[in-house]
């Protein structure tokens, strides 16, 4: 059947979910549903697609919750809202995904597809649910399987293949695609409603990429012009893809099976069908790409915050010692950090210069954030909107705090079969509908199955080809720099190459009114960005008494469209035939990603991104003067192009014994923009387990999945920091009964593995729940008591602005918010680990510059830990887990649980916490072309 769409006050943003509004009465809903359940066009039974050129031997699997179908008609939305019924294939991968948390311990290779889907090419004849000839075309068919409803697109012409890809994308994600093209243009509130979360979302991305329509078109023109035949093919593919999307829009509009959100947001009338669904155009694809690139593939930023904390350190300790303290917390090249390339090879990037040049550190207390919102009226100016704006600004200005996904790849030398095995995928959060969608595309020059971001699925972006598979994790190396431009004439002119130059004013005015989907009262505002040659203005300050504006320049700015060439290559079986050609393909992707590859014989890794070659002496950690001497080498402000580090200087490897990545440090001497790449990182959870498997040999798909699943349930603090904390406490007999009882509970939990897991499947109660509560309450208390006395309040606060103290599963302050799964990426665990080990007298490589816990005294440190532990033990569950719109106060399991955040009209149940990829593959190819 034609695919459908979903609803809800979108609308709850990418971060903090809320309950669905109770805006409909059951009786009226039933009456309305009865009128809406008109016959829909039926797809016809089909002959199965031929599974040709599949070299995986039935040993490739994948999973993407909650389900492939991300469209729902108005009737389906209303049924879901009132009765909880789900459209076909909207939720059929959620339970499968969830069950691994309690089922992995008995996993065997034969049971893998109990927890994953078979991702072999084609569909078995007895598993074909339907086929379509979109728009009656004879050169493409879309076959959907019975189990998951995934589209298998087969074309006999390139145009037809891409037309089918666009048609299938619109069938499965039209509403979501429409939402994000408006996010990319900063127009979400006008389109979907003025909820504070919507305001925050559009503000975050508009500040980051304030593109005009001309800017979006220029990206396309440049990408095509600079890439020869492949550029022309990409343009043709994109246009065919758009034709498919728009064909579905027309068909669903005339057939009245378009997504119901269009009615609920006031764009269509459910009775007369009045209103329009705008066709997609090619600049919409760039707007979509700019959102995805900003979310997952643009490392850097934070230079002004770095400067503020450096100045605080220097004020506390003096310039020399303060700089030493700052560097020890920054950990830009920590010798104890877990590495993806662990064979000793060095790839220097972003290293500290011996004699920094051009630094433009702000005068103390002078930094102010550049306003974004002007002329706000109504709900555009209320308190919740202001808070959303502040959050959006903070998030947009520090992309270094983003980054998810993991990968485990083992060389065939250490597997039972002799073939490499990979378990990998991106952590892109959990949404309904999901940001990613599954598909298989087979056509001239294209042969792949996997996941793609909705609206950008002309190619598979993460998945498998005929005899190879690939995936990515966010890498986060610094491709964003901050420049201090000296002001002249007024606050909106600056000196550029000796000339007083006017800033460009870019603005977007939005207004909204209440709808059924979003009852937020009417409001409006204008978002305004001042752009310079060095990028948008983010802060204002003084430097040595001179008024300056701090700007942000990233190498991918105005170049989000360029990466299409690399994805095209990954889908081309005539291009990717080896690890070397795989590395060549991903070199064409300018997003900051770690790329992983496996075929039947080889494994490979490559770190992508346009890493700018900085001027000699420039320290990328801090803002520099906007002057020619400190610009990127051969930088052209008209095109935002420059010299980039050559491919050979990017971390890379072929056939290393194993690779792990969980957004950890890539290689020796390769500095990432985010703080926290130290002795304890969640990457250690993978590395320790895979290293043991490889040492034992005989690795299988199931054993590697078990390693991933075990890590996904483990509390990083418990496994890697708690043992030494308990050593300090137990250095003398614990006589206080409250502390002693807490220590016993923590030790029992630690002995059991330090996992946050249910007592049994579906119990919604953690084993060792009290120990988990104690550690959750204790961690922020002990960190503050350990470090604040030595650092002082100002420096401690500045450092916590650089790096969150904690990121538990229930934490709402992290980059993905609460109920998002991804956890333990950012926190002070490395600092605590190094400091406690130092106090214990253990050897510490790359220690902190000072000893902080108890001023270095073991007994004083012990007193601090016991005092804070007693406070934590007495802290109630309702205080530790205060509750939100989804969970009652004190409900520990619910506080941790994963929620599919509603971006449309269909809601789903929450599932038990797992710290694992959203889309995940398990692959072991048995042969090669």
Model description:
- The protein is an alpha+beta fold and 929 residues long.
- Helix content is 34%, strand content 18%.
- It has 27 helices and 31 strands.
- The strands form five sheets. The protein has a ten-stranded mixed beta sheet with strand order 4-5-6-13-14-15-16-24-25-27, with helices on one face. Strands 8, 9, 17, 18, 19, 20, 21, 22, 23 and 26 form a ten-stranded mixed beta sheet that branches.
- Strand 5 and strand 6 form a beta hairpin.
- The radius of gyration is 27 Å and the shape is globular.
- 60% of the residues are buried.
List keywords for this structure.
single chain, 929 residues, alpha+beta, 10-stranded mixed sheet, 27 helices, 31 strands, 34% helix, 18% strand, globular, disordered N terminus
